[in-house]
User: Fold these one by one.
Assistant:
Number 1:
Amino acid sequence: MKILQIDSARFGSLSIDTPVILEEGLNLWIAENQSGKTTLLTFLEWMLFGPASKRGAKDPQAIKRWTPWIGGTPSGRLVIKPELDGWPEKILVTARFSDYFVQVSEYSTQRSLTDKVTVSKHGEWDLGRRLLNLSRQSFRHSLSATQANVIETLDRSNLRQILTSDLGELVENPDVTTVDRIIEALENPRFTLGDSPPRNMREHRMHLAKELDYLKLEQGQLSQQLNEYHELQKERDSVLSQLEQQDRVILGLEKQRDQLELARNHYLHKVASGELQPAVSTEPEPSAAITADLAHEVDVLYGKLEALEQQISRVEQEISALNISYESAQKLNSDQPDERQGGDTRQLLQQVSAAVETAHREYTVAADRAKRLEDQIPEAEKNRYQSLDKMFAPHREHLSSILEWEEEHSKVTTELEKLRERKVELEIVNRDELPWWSYLGFVCVFMAFLSIIAHYSFMPHMVREILPFAGWIIAAVFLVVAGFLLFPYLRRARTTGPAYTELQNSVLPAMEEQTQKMDQLNRRRMRFIELYKIDRQNWDRLVENIKDYISLDVRFREYSSAIRDRDTIRRRMEAAWTEVGQIEPLAPLVPDMDWLRNMIRKLAEAPSVISGNKFDIRELETQISVQNRELGRLAQERDQISRALEAKLQPIGFASKLREGPRAAMEAFRNLATNVRSGHREAPVPQADPLLLGKPSMKVAEFNERWAALSPTEQNRLALLCRDKVSHDSVCNRLSELDKKIHEARDSRESIRRALDHIRDGMHRFGNIDKVAREMKQRSEHAGRLDKLVHNWDEALATTREIVQSLVNRASSDTAPEIDRAMKSILANAPIKGIEDASLDSNLSLRLRVTGAPADIPSHELWTYMSTGAQQQLALALRLAMARTASGRTDLPLMLDEPLADLDDERAELVFNYITDLSDTTQIIVTTCHQQLYDWLRERRQERVNLMSMPVG
């Protein structure tokens, strides 16, 4: 493949509008800095392989990075010479990277060759693979080299990545590791990744992990529902007990009322039947002085008195409203007028009062709810929860991270403690020393062998004839003694062996693993402390109390929610009341709804004094003065009429009533003067108290039936309870109090019943709780199975990566001989001075034979002792050899950016001459900004060099 022409390019800082023609030999691209020389390599890579993807997906950020500096979208047009069977002589490639578009056509006839290129779902296309038989990674590492990236080819790991880019991608990027790709790799190490649409093992594993997380989330939600349901059950039982207790209270009150009603009816029936005489009233009798004229005069005086009281009350209200208007006028006429000047105070208060009323009503409901829930919580637990909530309030968003760290830390700490205890036990077993006399057993064994040897070597012949087994007998005795002495040693060996094995193979590695986990947790702790801005002391307190706080928060969640709602509504109410204070500076500091309503009513009755004009304060002062004089005049008239009324009533015995007030005296006077005003002039007959003359609440038959059902003792008790007027009044008062208590008890019962209905509605919301429990159990079992499956997938992925790594090693080793032959062919055409022979072994180690090299330097390390220029030449040869081997072709373009960077003149001349030699069989594109250096190198070159200088448009 050859690149013949760049028609146009708009790619980052690279901007080509006039076609640039490239030759098949050496092309020297000389341009200024920031003109797109290095960008040219990336542009050619994108034209051949499409926009670079990220983790198997489109990467819009990469396209945005290469947006043309002159505006528009990144795009380009190339003329390429494929040099492949089935392809035209020249093709035109048009690419628009912003929408992942590529078009290939025949250059001469413009015939479309769309079937020659395939665009993947992640935006890349395979034109470069079809033309070069190389992947993007192989092209980038072998044929394209940026500054200071030429010599990196000599590293063995880079060699493997270039040779087996597809397999290497499986190892470096496990996201694309799949079973199908591994099977294909076994058959062909240079398979095409885009041609295989397999199921992704890692994606499957991630899918299982997500499903597991979702199941755990559902399990947590179901657990929360069960907890809420159980809390509602407890609350329902508590409310039911309260309801039963309230029913008992109501029954007791109704029973007391029935008994008092029976006693009262008994007294009234006896009075009606004449069995009892009612007591004579102690009220003063209407004397002869109480005439109809006197009663009329008293009524007239009292009527005037009431009228004056009403007038005085009205005048006082007007004065209060005028004072408010006067203060508002003073405020509006000051040097710094209020920002609400020109508005109506009453209208502003009415507008704000709606928000205050709503907030006050909601606050009352929220406060009652919070108080009710607070009463159900023990005081100690409530104080504990409030203190913990205050401590965790700034870190509520990080509770999950802190809790996870605390659980892992507790687990690791527990494991370490267990392992340390086990280590101490095993070390005690290993350090258990033997008694000193047990070592004499080895001496006895040695003496037994000496006895046998002495029996045959040193014992006299006569003794052997007399005692033929003397030596053996002595040896047997020594062995018996040795067995007795060595028994503790053998027993210790039987126990210390397994103990030592367990200590070395199990306990110590486990302790090291747990210590590493503890170090990781400590690093996470330091990162959390820095990220969440927590000091170490507070961190220890948070970790120590987080479990207690979460358990209390789950139990008191409704209480904490009620407290937060109450505080939120209170702040909203205070904010609304602040607006009231801005409208009326004399408003109370705390919300007072009665004051607000009275103020709005007074302002409604008083004329509005706020307008957009200047106020006449003197007019308001005059009105206030007039109203004050009117109030004084009315007060004088009231005092005169009060004295006249007192003069009328005091002579006829109402002095005591007058001390209670005119109204009480008038009521008593009217009761006594009833007969006088109706025309009866004779002395009245003493009458009983009107309360005693009331009708019984029971008919005689009903009363007799209920009275007869009582026991004699109960009848006597009730008869004594109400036997005269005084006791009757007391019973009536008690009946009134009981009616009031019964009414309050029934209201309380109704509120409890409504609360019970609300709780039952909340319980009905959960539906069938048994079904929820079964679902939770199923979720838990399914989560366990998924957890095990995810673990199996992790093991499978690890095994897969090992297999792929072995495939990479095998594939690269199989390819090494081909690279060796290609490199020798290139060095034969373009030799490197000083290198006699270069070869590549099966492990991809570069072995050299260099003229004058010391014999003690290994051949695979010789390249590290070579000069930079020689290393550059060798790297270029090896780079081109690998590319040709991987693609199976010999005509591949080589793209270099500043290949002579950081070289002195001598080494730069050597590398330049070598590049010129390679250009005889290879198209080479060199980009640089050092024009003088390359002009000097061209002049130094003895033979003709096919060079080309191309300015960037």
Number 2:
Amino acid sequence: MKFKMFLIYKGAKMSIRKKFVIFSIILGIVPTCLAVSICIVNFNNKNVEMIKENVTTVAKDQSSKLDEFFKQNITDLNIAANIPVTKQLLVTSNNGIDDKNLKYNNEMLSQLFESIQKEQFFLDRVLLVNKYGIVILSSDNRYVGKSIILSDKERETLLKNNIVVTDIIQKKDFNNGVKSAIIARPIFSENKYQGSIFNVINMNYFQKIVNSVGFFKNGKVAIVDGKGEVVSSSSREVKNNINKISSPNSLYSQWNRIDFNKNPNGIIEYNMKGTDKIGYYSRIPNTGWTVLSGVEWSEFKNPMNNNIRNLIAILMFIIAIVTVPYIFVIKHFSRPLFKLLESIKRIKKGNYSDRFIYNKDDEFGEIATAFNGLIDKIQENKRHIENKNRNLQSLTSNIPGGVHRNVLENGEFILDFLSGGFLQLLGYERREFNRMFGKKIFDVIYEKDRERVKKEINEQISKHNKFNVEYRLVRKDGSIIWVIDNGQTVKDRNGKVFSYNVVININDAKIAQEKLRLSEERYRIIMSQTEDIIFQWNIIEDTFSHSDKWNRIFNEETDINNISKKIYKTDVIYKDDLKKLSQNLNQIINGEEYEETEIRIKNKNSQYIWYKIRATGIFDENGELFRVIGVIININKEKIEAEKLLFKAQRDSLTSLYNKGITQSIIEEYMENEGEGITGALFIIDVDNFKAINDNLGHLAGDVVLTSISSMLLEVFSEDAIVGRMGGDEFMVFLKNVDSKEFLYKKAEQLLKGFRKEHIEQNSKYKISASIGIAMYPKHGVSFKELFINADKAVYLAKNRGKDNYCIFEDA
């Protein structure tokens, strides 16, 4: 009977050992195979993602470049369209008006168009087209008078005051049959369409873009318009229209399936001449144009397949090498290991008197000695811990809040005790907590705080065996609360280290603190990333405070008291802008929530720089203004560029005086805006016998005379006088605040003397003189037209008196 039982026991042992070997092999090989398979799949997926990312990046990058290209063209068109002369020419053309300044305006705008064309290598010409589609002005005079035919859709777009970017145009009657495109900007006057300004662009810029792109071995890029016409391409297969590619391909069908309105960007897979390709298309905003990038799949599939075959071969070799010794090792060590496992199972069930018996003098003998010694210590410590736990439970039962104790082993905190207060804080029953977390106290800490808490505790313990940390706990209901954990480490006589912790709920205080921190951090980030200056005006205290960038730009005190008084006693604000700023701030004081203005402020280099002030009023619950917050933005560069363009548009190209139209506008503005009681005088100055100078000495000599006369006029009249050239040999001057005729006589005499001093270097026999007519405002006219007519009559009378003379209309 005993022998039979032994055989049963022996058979059971052999069965377990066999299963152990089999499972060991399976657990060694299967995970390896799975790991390699996963690696292969991930490798393939990442390669595909990399391919898509590369073609996407190329297409988006080129799309972005083209978008910027179109925006820059539109900006240039906007500048040209906003010049007053542009609208004036269109209105004159559309209405058949006979404008005496037409030739001069044409020349000035033509020069501007020619300079724009020369600066841009891709620009074939700039056209000004009236509302009937007729070219009235061009950087290339051969196109003046020709018709520009746009589609009905493109014309409707212009009539809606929107920019038009056409598809490719390739016609013999347009741009000599060269492949071109048009960027058109509509021009309106008094809410009526007057015409458009066109940039006619060639394909040089786009071909330069696609030729500069290189990605992968056979990556190609093409730019396509809204009709599928290829603008430019680095691919030999995609050169004309996508819809007309003759070689066997699926690009045509795939391309026509795309709804570009819903999906302006996306991946496209197609086949060209039996070669599979993957690409990415990106529609350029506000146009019908699209950038397409593509690359052959084979460039990636062949290396991937080779890598996969190599991985499989290596895997099979590893399995072959590992399996044989692995089986031998498992078989050799299985018996003592099973005995050790059985002892561990009995000890885990609570039988701490059990020991691992092994009498041979080898490695397992050393393991048995160490294991049994460890169990002896565990049994001893268990009795000691039970005593400590009873003492700790008695101590913590009356402490408010949560308490927990942990054993520190190898840098890990193993939960040893948890008070009812801590469980109540978390919302768990003790059995629920034990089932979910066991001894892992750090698992109740919010996941994002765990590493930080471990690091802070370890750093503090290394210095003074105490720690104080704040972190978040995840409660049973999923809510998160902030706590402060005060702990101290204690080592018992056996060298075992414990941490004793008291946890207090600080959630409400922490939420308030975090809101304040986030608010301050947002403000700091915004301030660090902007060159603008944020300011605050406290209305009640009348103080002005600002961001740090103020101190780096202006030599002013950090915070200014009595700002409403000091601002008028300092030269920080340009004196001509103080009134405008005052009006702006008064608007806010009177109830406007938001105002903005442009003023000049003196920087630390004593230079006045243009800034835009944006200010917003903050009102209390009674609707009373108590604070103004705003931003100061540097617009100096933009302002200078705008002034340069304005100066060029307003000035006579020869003398740099105001041209006739601008001179009239400034005089009319003075009459309308300065109020009642103002006075003035209009001088019309005609150079005597100027035609003879041009005819006999040439136009170059005439230009020198006109330039010299212009300089003399600026010397005779004060800075606030309005001095302009009407054209040819006529000049116009308007004097402000004229009190008497005697003053006018004096100025007229100064002018005549100034003309008499003028001479021509080539021939001194030519004497320079002028006839001057003067009309007084408002005595001789309350409008510019009336004043001009009367001054012109006075000129006529002065010439009849023998030239080199002057006449006031009243005397006439």
